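Hey, can you fold this one?
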Amino acid sequence: MTIVAGLDLKTASSFSAFMVTGGSIANVISNLFGGKALLDYDLALLLEPCMLLGVSIGVICNRVLPEWLITVLFAVFLAWSSLKTCRNGVKFWKLESETAKGKGHERPEKGRGEIEEDTKNLKAPLLEAQVTKNKSKLPWTKLGVLVIVWASFFVIYLLRGNKDGKGIITIKPCGVEYWILLSLQIPLALIFTKLALSRTESRQESSPSNQQKNQEDTRLDQSTRLMFPVMSFLAGLLGGIFGIGGGMLISPLLLQTGIPPQITAATTSFMVFFSATMSAVQYLLLGMQNTDTAYVFSLICFVASLLGLVLVQKAVAQFGRASIIVFSVGTVMSLSTVLMTSFGALDVWTDYAAGKDMGFKLPC
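Sure. Predicted structure:
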């Protein structure tokens, strides 16, 4: 929106929130009602609270950090994420090729069932109970908890208000009440994360297959589970700083831990739905302009996302390679690295030549 359409950052950010919302709605509809158990709701429950907390802190950091530092951090992280994603894509591609060759099939799609079986055997401690559940029945309890998490953070945002402190209640920006409201997000995220961890541990302990694991495997699983909230907080923090979706940031991290590409894509898009809708509603409540144009962009992205889902699913079904999803994400991130770094450097140089303030700023 900023590079191609030439919009200012404020307008582009508000339009982007609605565009991402439209695309995420298409993904959620496909994953919830598509008849496939691709969503890991336990993983979403672990990731969402800390991601929302990270987004809130990242937005504050975005106000404090100078633009040149944000540009440098953005370039470094995008380059690292692109490299990790492409390496994961190559790893999954080799796994699919070896599986197809080992089964004596000429085309990889012939061994798709075995590929999926081998992929499931990667490190994914939260997925065992999820995959074996009823594929047609929605877990309404987990969906309800996710909505409660979203609503809890949203109420805090409403109470905090806009940058002038005007919301449901009027408070002084960066005053005592302002920071108390923001600090409430920390225990909120910890409580929801702890409940999700406790529930996951109790389910795994009651599973017969997990009772046969030795203590070393159990410790590894616990450390892996604890790593998920940390990763989601980091993704949310960087997403808030850079003003981009946390789903794209956490995808390479989940792939690095061994979560299959289909599960990663479905779960992260499901999480983006909550963060994107919250951003869009906030823009509306804060008096966003040109809402009709935003609705049109959202509809276009909804249709485009449905088309993309159909094309990708057909490609995966035909070629039997879920690594197509990983390479798609890696391509987008690589292009983003080149474009955003180049134009960001030009913007920083323009600000420096114009004599603008290049130092740190106050949060309010």
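The mean pLDDT is 76. Let me know if you want another pass with a different chain boundary.
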